[in-house]
Design goal:
The chain has 433 residues and is α+β, with helices and mostly antiparallel strands. Helix content is 39%, strand content 22%. Helix 3 packs antiparallel against helix 4.
Length: 433
């Protein structure tokens, strides 16, 4: 029996942590490819362009039911990338297709709901119009006719959209995907931005999965020396074929690299250093911004932390308001539970600008209100800071009680949607990390 091949590649499932840094390329290969490069384009931008083109190509071929192995072989010849870059591009394309299929189901259900509400609103408007006609109220009739016309147009638009989604679902297809962004393409069509900006958005990234057997990541490697981090990016299109092996596969020369410093936020440096020491796989995605700066998104698996809260004790309910939060200490039966005799909310040391800057009103039956008046009118960094202070206080209270936090989950409809705002409660457990 043939043994199943073990997959050592980084798995997208499970808890992940993503660190965003900035890459400063310093060393470029002296060689330029006449076949793959365009004008004065540097090798890193060429590699990015080829990778994005391969992703779009694989996206179209996958919808034609071509296999992954076929595409890997063909992609190397068409785009000049190595086998891992080709495979990563195929997986990215496959992920886009899967996500679009999931979105198709959600979009269909949401459109059904919108259409039902639109029919009700049309019915109400038509009844109101009939009453206005009976009373011969000319001004009201004029306004209501405009309303009925608009709601009929809305209903027709939703019906057409629902039919289109059903056709896609029945045929196993997906709606048109615009690489580079649909909103950006609309601006191009209206002449608001040059087409070069949209084209740049279609070729601005390079993605490489991690592999445990390859020291973390085979194509985009992170290294550390003397307290500084460095990034080395494989430029596979500059590799040339020098021979063929026994099975007829091409033997390529060693690909050159683009190397440079990698800046990381201070709070993540130790975490990335531990990651490199452990040899665990990590995924890197390089994205070139409009300012020609390279951002690196480093993703890796997280070890699940130990929970320090237990829903068997109950929950700490939280309701957010413009100037603070209301908390409710709830037992496992769902009833309010009085605070302990020695319970107290510590005053944050950072808030000392004026009297009443931080107010706490505790009710003995298990409720309290934390008020920071400045929250209702502050903005920018100050508001963000105050929200962080408030969040830390709530988390400290939950840790003291040993109870998860039940947050209010608000859903706001899309623009021009008929769906009203809805509220749900979602518990969040706390860990030692």
């Amino acid at each position: 029996m043939k043994k199943r091949k073990k997959n050592n590649s980084y798995s997208p499932d499970g808890d992940k942590n993503t660190v965003c840094g900035e890459f400063f390329p310093e060393t470029y290969p002296a060689l330029r490819s006449k076949k793959w490069s365009r004008g004065m384009e540097d090798p890193l931008n060429t590699e990015m362009r080829l990778f994005c083109s391969c992703t779009r190509w694989a996206f179209n071929r996958l919808q034609e039911d071509k296999s992954r192995e076929e595409l890997k072989k063909e992609g190397q010849q068409v785009f000049g990338l190595n086998v891992r870059y080709c495979d990563d591009a195929i997986l990215k394309a496959k992920a886009i297709i899967e996500s679009q299929k999931e979105l198709l189901k959600m979009e269909k259900e949401e459109t059904k709901t919108k259409l039902t509400r639109a029919k009700k609103k049309l019915s109400w408007a038509e009844k109101t119009l009939d009453k206005a006609v009976e009373k011969n109220d000319l001004e009201k009739i004029k306004n209501l006719k405009r309303t009925v016309h608009g709601r009929k147009a809305r209903m027709k638009k939703l019906s057409d959209k629902l039919n289109e989604l059903k056709v896609h679902e029945d045929n196993g297809t997906i709606p048109t995907v615009v690489f580079g962004g649909h909103s950006l393409w609309k601006k191009v069509c209206k002449g608001r931005i040059p087409i070069e900006e949209w084209k740049q958005a279609r070729q601005d990234r390079l993605y490489s999965r991690g592999d445990k057997t390859k020291g973390g990541n085979p194509n985009i490697k992170i290294s550390e020396y003397d307290g500084e981090f460095f990034l080395s990016v494989t430029i596979s299109h500059l590799s040339e074929q020098k021979d063929v092996d026994i099975k007829g596969r091409p033997i390529m020369t060693r690909a050159p690299h683009v190397e440079g410093k990698l800046w990381l936020p201070d709070k993540y440096r130790s975490k990335v250093y531990e990651l490199l020491l452990s040899g665990a796989p990590y995924t890197v995605e390089l994205i070139k911004g409009k300012d020609d700066r390279y951002r690196g998104h480093i993703s890796f698996d997280l070890t699940p932390p130990d929970l320090i809260t237990n829903p068997d004790y109950g929950y700490l309910g939280m309701d957010t308001n413009p100037d603070g939060v209301a908390l409710a200490n709830v037992s496992y039966t769902g009833q309010p539970e009085p605070w302990a005799e020695n319970f107290n909310v510590s005053y944050p040391k950072a808030l000392h600008k004026f009297d009443g800057e931080f107010q706490v009103k505790i009710h003995p039956n298990g409720f309290l209100y934390i008020k920071i008046p400045e929250l209702s009118y502050s903005c920018g960094y100050r508001r963000t800071y105050l929200i962080g202070v408030l969040a830390k206080i709530v988390v400290d209270i939950a840790k003291t009680l040993g109870k998860p936090i039940a947050l209010e989950k608000l859903e706001f409809g899309r623009p021009m949607d008929t769906k009203k705002n809805s509220t749900a409660w979602q518990p969040i457990s706390l860990s030692r990390r």
